[in-house]
C-alpha cells in the first residue's frame, strides 16, 4: 500500500521571480505588442482608437428594462409595488428616465455614425431629443400590440393555463418580441447601432434572433423559441404562430451580397394566421406563405404556397431494433 501524497506535494511549486518575469515575460509581451501594431499597417484591422463616443450596451440594457416596465406596469418594479394610487406617478417617472436614456444613447449613436463616415454631426442633440420624444409617444400603441402578443400566447399554449402573469414574467418569446418591437421603432427612424444592440440583448438571453428591420404584425406567438431566426426583410402578418428552431431566412447569397443586395427583399413573407412548426426553414424574398396555411416540422421551403394550404414531409420509415437479451430457461 502506497502512502497518499501530501498536501505540500499536491501544490504547484512553480513561483516566478521578479527577475525571471523581467527577463522572459516582459520581452515576450513587448514582441507580441509590436506584432499587433504591425498588423495595423499590413491588414485592414478593425479598431476603435479615435476619441469619439461609443454606443453603450449598459445604456441599451437600461432602455430595454424601462421599456419592459412601461409595457407591463407593476411586473418588474424594483423599489415599490405599483398600486392604483401610484401607477401614474411610476409611469411618469419611468418615462422621464426612458427619455433621458434614449436621448443620450441616440445622440451617441448618431454622432458616432457621422464621425465614422468622416462627417460632422450637426444638430445631433436636437434630433436625438425629438426621436426620444417620438418613441415615448408611441409606447401606448406599442403596449396595445404587446397585449395582443400575450393574449395570443394564452390562446396558443395550453401549458400557460390562464396565467398571463407567468407569460409576462418568464416566456422567452414575449421578452424577445418586446425587444424587437422597441428596436423596430428605432429602426424605422434610421437610428444606427441601437436597434441591433437591443435585439442582440434578447438573442443572447433567449436564443431567439429577430432582426429589428423585420415587419411583424400583432398577436404574434413564438412557442418555446430556442433557435428561431427572423431575417431583416421578413414580413409577418397578424396572428402568426411559430415554434422553436424555425428559420425565416435568405437563399444562398453571393460574396458581394452585403453591398449589392442591401435593402432588397431577401426573406419570406408569412400572411395572416400562418402556423410554422418546429425546425421548418423558409427561405427567399419571393417566398410567400399564404394566409391560414400550416407548414409542418422540418419542412425546407423555397417556393410560395397558396392560402389555406398544409405542407408536411412524408412520414419517414422507422427502423426499430429490439436489443433485449433473452436468457435460456433453467
Number of strands: 14
Any idea what the CATH superfamily of the largest domain is called? serine acetyltransferase, domain 1
What helical percentage do the residues reach? 40-55%
Number of domain modules: 2
Strand order of the largest sheet: 1-4-7-10-13
Average per-residue pLDDT, rounded, comes to: 89
Q: What characterizes the major β-sheet?
A: 5 strands, parallel
Shape: globular
Structure in words:
By secondary structure, the chain is α/β, with parallel strands linked by helices. It has 2 domains: 51-207, serine acetyltransferase, domain 1 (Orthogonal Bundle), CATH 1.10.3130.10; 214-253 and 262-315, UDP N-Acetylglucosamine Acyltransferase, domain 1, CATH 2.160.10.10. Helix content is 45%, strand content 9%. The protein contains 10 helices and 14 strands. It has helices spanning 7-10, 18-42, 57-71, 87-116, 124-137, 139-156, 164-170, 172-188, 194-206, 257-260, and strands at residues 209-210, 215-216, 221-222, 229-230, 235-236, 241-242, 247-249, 269-270, 275-276, 281-283, 288-289, 294-295, 300-301, 310-311. The chain has a 5-stranded parallel sheet with strand order 1-4-7-10-13. α4 packs antiparallel against α5 (124-137), α6 runs antiparallel to α8 (172-188) and α8 (172-188) runs antiparallel to α9. The protein starts with 6 loop residues before the first helix and ends in a 19-residue tail after the last strand. The relative contact order is 0.07.
Amino acid at each position: 500500500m502506497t502512502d497518499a501524497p501530501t498536501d505540500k506535494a499536491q501544490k504547484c511549486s512553480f513561483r516566478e521571480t521578479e527577475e525571471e518575469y523581467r527577463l522572459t515575460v516582459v520581452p515576450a509581451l513587448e514582441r507580441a505588442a509590436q506584432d499587433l501594431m504591425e498588423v495595423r499597417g499590413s491588414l485592414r484591422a478593425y479598431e476603435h482608437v479615435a476619441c469619439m463616443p461609443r454606443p453603450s450596451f449598459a445604456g441599451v440594457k437600461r432602455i430595454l428594462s424601462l421599456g419592459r416596465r412601461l409595457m407591463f406596469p407593476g411586473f418588474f418594479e424594483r423599489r415599490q409595488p405599483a398600486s392604483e394610487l401610484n401607477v401614474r406617478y411610476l409611469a411618469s417617472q419611468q418615462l422621464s428616465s426612458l427619455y433621458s436614456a434614449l436621448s443620450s444613447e441616440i445622440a451617441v449613436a448618431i454622432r458616432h455614425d457621422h464621425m465614422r463616415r468622416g462627417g460632422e454631426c450637426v444638430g445631433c442633440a436636437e434630433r436625438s431629443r425629438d426621436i426620444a420624444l417620438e418613441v415615448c409617444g408611441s409606447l401606448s400603441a406599442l403596449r396595445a400590440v404587446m397585449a395582443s402578443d400575450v393574449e395570443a400566447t394564452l390562446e396558443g399554449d395550453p401549458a400557460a393555463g390562464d396565467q398571463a402573469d407567468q407569460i409576462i414574467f418568464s416566456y422567452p418569446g414575449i421578452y424577445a418580441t418586446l425587444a424587437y418591437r422597441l428596436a423596430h421603432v428605432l429602426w424605422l427612424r434610421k437610428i444606427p447601432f441601437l436597434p441591433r444592440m437591443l435585439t442582440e440583448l434578447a438573442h443572447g438571453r433567449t436564443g431567439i434572433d429577430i432582426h429589428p428591420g423585420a415587419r411583424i404584425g400583432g398577436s404574434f406567438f413564438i412557442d418555446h423559441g430556442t433557435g428561431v431566426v427572423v431575417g431583416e426583410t421578413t414580413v409577418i402578418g397578424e396572428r402568426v404562430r411559430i415554434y422553436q428552431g424555425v428559420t425565416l431566412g435568405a437563399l444562398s447569397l453571393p460574396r458581394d451580397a452585403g453591398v449589392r443586395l442591401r435593402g432588397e427583399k431577401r426573406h419570406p413573407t408569412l400572411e395572416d394566421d400562418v402556423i410554422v412548426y418546429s425546425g421548418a426553414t423558409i427561405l427567399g424574398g419571393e417566398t410567400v406563405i399564404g394566409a391560414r396555411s400550416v407548414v409542418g416540422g422540418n419542412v425546407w421551403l423555397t417556393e410560395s404556397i397558396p392560402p389555406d394550404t398544409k405542407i408536411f414531409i412524408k412520414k419517414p420509415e422507422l427502423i426499430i431494433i429490439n436489443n433485449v437479451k433473452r436468457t435460456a430457461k433453467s
